Amino acid sequence: MYAAIYSAALVDGKRQHLGNIRDLTVDLTERTFDTSGGTAVGISPITNWNSAVLVVIADESGFQKGSGFIKNIKVEDGVVSFSIDDLKRVLDTEILIDFSQDGETGHTIEDVFAKVRDAILSTKDPFASSFPVSFSIPNDTTDTKAIADYTGKYFISNGMKFLKVYLAYYNYFIKANYNPITDNIEFTFTPQQLSPEQIQLEDFVHEKTSGDIKVNKVIATISYQTELDESEPAWEDSNETYWNAQPTSMRGEIFAESLPPTDGYSEGFALKKTTSLEFQSATQTDYDNADQTSVAWIDGGHTTCPAFPPSFADAVAALGDSSNYQLGTVIEVHFRTDEYVLCIAYKMFVKVTAAVAGTYHKIYGKSYVGRPALPEKIYTLGTDNQIYEEYAPTSLRMYPIIAKIFEAAVLFESQLNAVYELVNGRYIENIIITEDDVKNVIEIKDLELYTMIEVFDVNTDSKLIPISEKQMIHDSDGTRFKIKLGFKKTKLTEIIKNDIGESGIVRSVSKGKTNVYRFEPFESDVEPENPLRDSTWLRPSSMAE
Amino acid sequence: MRKFILWNKTETTSFEFTDSILVVESKGLGITFKPIENDGKISKLKASHPTIELKIVFGAGANAYEDHKSLVDFIALNGNKQFVLEYQFDGNTRFVDVWIVNLPKEDKDTYQTINAKLSLRRISHWYVKENITVNTNPETGQISNEIFEDTNAILTISGATTSGLAISTSMDGVVYNKIQLVDTLTATQTLTINGEEKSVTLDDDGVESNGYNMVYKLYNTFLVNKTGISKIWISGGSASSVTITRKKMVFS
User: Fold this and answer.
1) CA dist., res. B168 & res. B248, Å (int)
2) Given CB atoms, is A445 within the 8 Å cutoff of chain B?
3) A70 pairs with which residues across the strands?
């Protein structure tokens, strides 16, 4: 085998051929949905690799066996090693898919594939004009609205991930190759072969059931923001514990039949409301701190000032009805002699308070608008590895039911992500077959990707599984082929990459503007009240502790 | 009487083991077969080449050191490249591509000669050189391949050619290799399609350039011959001449 290397440049209108790498050892794997790739080593007289872009792997006579982008070129003593990257990388890019234009809202398979094609071809990137890209799309008018209806919408998505949903759901895969005759990178949307190939395996027993249980039911719905309504604060019932726990600035008590308006009260303010007042013993400190104070005296019975203050009972008797005073008033009560001399040396303090028995309230300004009933779509995965809109037939239902819910601002986005989840959960198998494993006469090297294989083991049990990978290894011992059936991830890096964060293939087009706040640094002697708002406050060094 | 001649890579200069530099013993001239196994099962045989060892006596009737140096100088002039070993025996001539891996130098023995074992790593089968002229049907040429593997050849097309020049190769009536040019060649142009080096060179009146894009990629690019007897002919267009230069691989 050898590798033909092509440049990014054109010479006399033809793709520049830099040279060939002969005596090639190559390991190349094609994959149905994931990116293909490989590595190779050979001998080459090429000295300038700067513009090398494309590689075509060919047999000794020049018949193409594979093609791709050449990467990671290392040259030492005329021996060249390099990696081969999938041509489908051209599709592994974000594109804007637009179903909002008049006359371009069709949802057949052909229409959906064409949307991706048009998005790729319309890119203004110079690569698109340097390397002609062509698509071969079959005439398939199957309606795809079972997955999602994008009429009137546009969105941004990764081309390969978006296509994977439709390819897997409707049984297609993409063949990619470089055609040196037309100088085109060609993408051919190829339907899965309908009649399965039968393979009898020699000395091979495959697993009867799938080992992994993955998500088998998905629900797609619309996300909803339960809104806060802060425009109408109100009093709500509270209790003494809450009232006692508030600082004095955040609590109060009133003597009234009804609650006051909420104006001026902060969120969480506690209020004790009583409909009756009473006197309580108080202190000099209470008198000093009170907003409202008064002085009263007790007449009669003393020619000279006694050497003791009035008792609480005497003071209360002298003050009369507590409802004649304002709530919170602290009164200083003295004796007064018969000569009307106020005995200021000794006094009793009495405070007007609300009766112990009262009702407690607090300000509560938030209220939420509850989530209404919103549209949702359900999809399930059957034991036949087919994806069903709503529920699979009872005989094909998977148990236990493991569901995952997807929500997004628009239903089609959550639908796409939901179906993508199920697509990745199909055919969780891993059977690797070489020509020597096969008992019957079949050339596995001639089998195409995604071909459905009916595998018979030594017990004549069978299972229907598609080809997910096809590996070609060529070295000094010749050329060998292996095929992998099923999409079970076996390498840790594959599991991590594909099982975490794989959903979310649609990135919605932004509907609102992004607000940017700028806080200029400022210096002040006074620490700001709002630490978040004024986070750029600089404390002067003179204030440093 | 057998004879060994060592040629440089381009086969423009040679070193003959004769006169005072004699090959007195040789090993590794045969062939071995290596079974190819897969999971413990042998699927086919692959021919393997043992290392050739030539026991050489330098200085038979001459200065041994000078004789030894003459071989060393010849090897150095070739640079870091392979050699071609020519082996003549019983009226037959065979060639093999080799790399020199060992040429020790010892002191003179009592006969004032130096004995050394030259080790040559074989990288090809033994072969005979063959030139075949390719003509238009029905005067088809014939190529035989006696070994178990497909073999490569060098196809040389001399201009002027007409449009659609094609060379086809068949076995048992089935065409298995077809080479067709995209454009025509002028009278001063020669296209060399080298299946061994995997290169296509256009020579235009002495000026060489890459001619890889001149071969139509819908068909084959290089001439490859299957095991057995194949027929080869010009199946489309015409040329001033079409010749095949090849190493006809043999087992013995």
Assistant:
1) 19
2) no
3) A84
User: Which of A6, A5, A1 lies closest to A61 in space, CA to CA?
Assistant: A1
List residues bridging with A79 in a β-sheet. Answer: A43, A76
- Which pLDDT tens digit goes with each residue over B157-177? 998 999 999 999 999 999 999
What count of other Cβ atoms lies within 10 Å of the Cβ of residue A66?
Answer: 23
State the ipTM, two decimals: 0.86
Q: Which amino acid is at A528?
A: P
Q: Name the residue type at position A71.
A: K
Q: Is the pLDDT of residue A231 over 70?
A: no
Does residue B19 carry a pLDDT above 90? no
Q: Phi and psi for A53 in degrees, rounded to 5?
A: -130, -50
The region, left, alpha or beta by phi > 0 then psi within -120 to 50, assigned to residue A209 is beta
Residue among B38, B195, B215 whose CB faces A436 most closely: B38
Nearest-angstrom CA–CA distance, A290 and A322: 17
Distance, in angstroms, between B61 CA and closest chain A CA?
42
- Residue A228 CB: number of other CB atoms within 10 A? 11
A477 and chain B in contact, CB less than 8 A: yes
Distance CA A434, CA A506 (A): 38
A-B contacts (CB, under 8 Å): 59
Q: Tell if the CB–CB gap between B195 and A60 is shorter than 8 Å.
A: yes
Q: Which residues in chain A are closer than 8 Å to B218, comparing Cβ atoms?
A: 181
- Residues forming beta bridges with residue A475, ordered by sequence position: A478
